[in-house]
Specification:
heterodimer; A: 239 residues; Rossmann fold; six-stranded mixed beta sheet; four-stranded antiparallel beta sheet; B: 290 residues; mainly alpha; two-stranded antiparallel sheet; 2 strands; 2% strand; globular
Amino acid sequence: MTTPMLEVEGISTIRGRVQVLWDVSLTVQRGETVAIVGPNGAGKTTLVGSITGLVPPKSGRIRINGADVTGSPPEKLASRRVALVPERRGIFAPLTVRENLLMGAYARRARRAELDADLDDVFGLFPALVRYRDAIAGSLSGGEQQMVAIGRALMAKPELLLLDEPSLGLAPKVRAEIFGALARLAERGVTILLVEQNLRLAARICGRAYLMQNGRIVGTETSDELARSARTVYLGSHG
Amino acid sequence: MIAQLWQYVLAGVVVGAIYALIAAGFVLIYQVTGLINFAQGEFAMIGAMTASALATSGMPVFEAAAIAVLVASVTGALCYLLAIRPARAATGVTLIFITLGLDVALRGLGLFVWGTNPLSLPAFTGGAAITVFGGVLPPQAMWVLLTDLLVFAALYLFFRHTYAGTAVRAAVANPPIASTFGIPLRTFAFWSFVAAAAIGGLGGVVVAPITSATYDMGLTLGLAGFVAAVLGGLDSLPGALVGGFVLGIVEKLAGGVLSTGWEQGVGFLILVLVLVLRPQGLLGRAVRRA
């Protein structure tokens, strides 16, 4: 049996004085695309923060590719080829699009020629960004900024890509474009953990999903079950 | 009268160039760490006193200057490693008090090592005074302005045209997300102290031949540098340059036209006006805190 790309084992996380995660466990196999779905306040973003080291858990274990990374600072995690597309994009607003993308590759210490090839790859995935190459990233629309955030994460050549609500606040057409790109990444074999409230979008690219509520994993669904849920359930009241 | 005013302006430009260097140190540390380092002026004192003491003992002035900048840089590194880094989890106010403590400690160290007597440093080059449209500048003034030009050009090239400089800007823009890409925030904080101390030390070295060096010169320079940084915008290096020159010129004009007592007082008047009318400074970005 191969080592899972990501194993989260019974983590509990406190933010401020409030416990947000309670004994959360999940596994993502190499090459899988897995969703975490749940209503606002379920603890999805905190879970991503705990995995990336931004909000270290107070108990439990997190393993990436078999290595225990519990409590590791975020900059150490980057060298393990884990990249994050954060909630609300988190782009480096004063930097140009090209500079944002290059920063994604910081931990790789790659050569110039290699970086140029990777930039071309990202611009191939998101042709809409080509003409904004030297534009200040903060001046772009929400959808374009989301493409920058995903492109920046891809520049890290991630083995595990974490996306936190990439569809948030985007027009349907832009969402479709972004999820089309994510589907192509999944086909390339990138392991993806997607946090998403939009069940229909999640079902399009994910093989299975964990359902979160009140800081706990309360169930799992296959993509077919998720698609059925999307037709019948509004997530705001979904368990 | 106009000739007299012009002379004040020229004197203000020279003083302003030094203020700009000190202000650049404030801005560098503030941008990278979010901290206002009130010990910044003491790096200039250490640079000036070290260079003056070495030159007095017979060392050639350029060698003394280089060693002085190195000593200031090491002081900056030690300040970060021994005082700031261990307290990085502390609140902003606590950290500001730590830098105030550093300021007092470094001044005390200066007093202990070099005593109360002023030390002099020979001008880098001799020659006659330089005449600019009828106004007169000492030859050392050219070294002060050249230092400003080189330091700010180097900072511009670093931040705009190097990968590491871009990474620092990314870390400033969004520290937690930058860290997820492996951008080392603590390393940058360390180097911001080293660079700020080196620039401050350099400022002290180039100004020492004009003003002479004393153990307590850092207090005045530090306060002026702080006012210049706030005036220009604490998050703006070009602002530090503009703020330094504006403050220097206004100070000298106020001192010349009104009375010398106004020379330092006007700086604080400017500080109050900026904080009330334009808190982000002349070139800084307005920040709305959540």
